[in-house]
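step=encode ok
step=design start
structure_in=
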């Protein structure tokens, strides 16, 4: 049986075009690089690999404008948020301490002590989970408690969270309903079009 030819390695630097030193540092870290090629096309992520998803999120961040004040923080979260899915334990019942967002937070803490990017990275999927509880599992009270906890954890970082949630949701074939719900439910966010 003939082996498939090995494809050329991906130039992640050229593909992701880091703008900040911290982004370039990620691309030199073996633990980070290990996660970039993980993933196959699936619902929500028809692009498959993580590095392609990051590029799509970065493209949405670009639509906010090069001078947007939250752009540097949004880009850092984009680089790291899903990169550790390859480590995630999805056994049941879920051990949420082994969720990819926790691994991402721990990785990010090696590079920055910025509470905004660390907090948003750790909780980046939480609004979606709140929406699922309410609309898929009919657990409105639990959803409301979980959303309140999320907003308490975010504090002053709610607008950053919202913008990242929007840039992340508007990729692939993700369901836009959680984003619309968040925009209609959460007070004191500035609704932004991208």
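sequence_out=
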């Amino acid at each position: 049986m003939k082996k498939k030819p090995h494809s050329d390695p991906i130039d992640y630097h050229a593909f992701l075009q880091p703008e900040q030193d911290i982004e370039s540092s990620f691309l030199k870290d073996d633990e980070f690089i290990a996660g970039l090629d993980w993933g196959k096309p699936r619902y929500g992520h028809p692009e498959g690999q993580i590095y392609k998803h990051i590029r799509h999120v970065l493209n949405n961040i670009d639509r906010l404008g090069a001078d947007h004040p939250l752009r540097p923080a949004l880009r850092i979260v984009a680089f790291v948020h899903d990169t550790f899915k390859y480590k995630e334990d999805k056994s049941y019942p879920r051990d949420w301490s082994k969720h990819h967002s926790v691994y991402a937070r721990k990785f990010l803490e090696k590079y920055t002590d910025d509470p905004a990017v660390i907090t948003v990275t750790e909780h980046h999927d939480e609004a979606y989970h709140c929406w699922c509880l309410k609309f898929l599992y009919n657990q409105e009270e639990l959803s409301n408690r979980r959303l309140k906890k999320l907003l308490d954890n975010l504090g002053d970082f709610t607008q950053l969270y919202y913008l990242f949630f929007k840039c992340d949701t508007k990729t692939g074939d993700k369901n836009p309903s959680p984003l619309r719900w968040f925009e209609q439910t959460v007070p004191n966010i500035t609704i932004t079009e991208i």
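step=design ok
step=annotate ok -> The radius of gyration is 17 Å.
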